[in-house]
């Protein structure tokens, strides 16, 4: 029986029971699986093969789910590549694919967020902008663990203007409130939405309360 091919589109066995891949993609997806010679007991695969086999399907499952979620946003092929690059920019924070999509979606209008009201138009984020904002936040003594917490609390920060809002508001906090260094870090972790404030109604409500300094 070992001299016959196993009924599988993925594996074939020669008389020496050597394991081979008939799909180069799958072989590439599981570099930890080596060619194995030996006898199979009761027709079952050795543990080393079974473990690698699991990694193949895990990789394929990630690829399928990743593509499906990007397609659900109605993005073109080019925009989907851009979206994927922005996901990679968030990879340091160990978010799930769903969390990455939710963060980017809320920041750039693809997912509804009360923070923006009706003003946020849908757009595809540019990875350069996402990286610039993340780098600026790191410059405020925020670690990746800090940024993970901040992005979960206030994902819309990635959709704020770096120059007109983030930098300007940090300057206001430093100059007018004397908040800087460790105090600034603690404030941003407690109330990150201050980074996006761009209105000061001074008590005469302008119906944009989520972005108003009166909340500070």
TrEMBL record:
GO terms for biological process: DNA-templated transcription termination. InterPro entries: MTERF (IPR003690), MTERF_sf (IPR038538). Keywords: Transcription, Transcription regulation, Transcription termination, Transit peptide. The keyword Ligase does not apply. One of its GO terms (molecular function) is nucleic acid binding. Belongs to the mTERF family. This is Mitochondrial transcription termination factor family protein. It comes from Davidia involucrata. The lineage of its organism: Eukaryota, Viridiplantae, Streptophyta, Embryophyta, Tracheophyta.
